[in-house]
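Thread: quick sanity check before group meeting

JM: Hey all, I'm pulling together slides for Thursday and realized we never actually wrote out the predicted structure for the chain we discussed last week. Dropping the sequence here so it's in one place. If anyone has concerns about the input, flag it before I start.
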Amino acid sequence: MNLSSDIDFQLQDEIAMIKLNRASKRNALNDELVDSIRQIFENLPKQAKVAIVYGSGDHFCAGLDLSEIKERDAPEGMFHSRSWHTALDRLQYGPVPVIAALHGAVVGGGLELASACHIRVADESTFFALPEGTRGIFVGGGGSVRIPKLIGVSRMMDMMMTGRVYKAQEGERVGLSQYIVPTGSSLDKALELAKRIASNAPLTNYALMHALPRIAEQASDHGFLTEALMSSITQSAPEAKKRVRDFLEGHAAKVQA
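JM (edit): ok, ran it. Output follows.
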């Protein structure tokens, strides 16, 4: 892999740790950094079972680095946007579940990156914004597809039209994150969740990442058929059979409130 110096990739046991390492720019995204994300998820080591994306310094990601905006004609702009779509699709529909550990700014392209992750953990310093509307531009990294699925079209429209900022508590309430934790502890919580997810049957994790979002978008009769197919495939795996047998024989922990 030919990775940007602005990103740090390490494997910690079964967890791929991906750090945006551009603190002086509030981890603003440039093309090299986005392409590095694509490369990482296309070349994850086979031993990786889950990934965590997080940011160095005081912020997760303050969005697109506006200093790198170039004069592009319409076709060039379209191809540029599509390159971002490709990179974030590799993350969302890659081989392992991805957790975003959020703090500080989760703004513009940073929110587009976070929305491509499967689980988002925000600490109390986190704030969410989409300032593109007030800057005369439009989201281009997949945000218009992914973010409304989290919070609805009307809330995204409000964020872009008015510059509304959601603080951590509000963001968790409307669906921008699934967890909220004390300031400075989002990465610790992400690691805790990652270890739990890594212990799942890999085929079940894969089905949740790849099948569940598509089932949610299908017509009901199509969704029921897809669910039946995925259910039969996952439960036929040898690991699934062993886990069910362990539970029936009293060797597996029961669900606790």
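AS: nice. The first strand starts at residue 7 and ends at 12. The radius of gyration is 19 Å.
JM: adding both to the slides.
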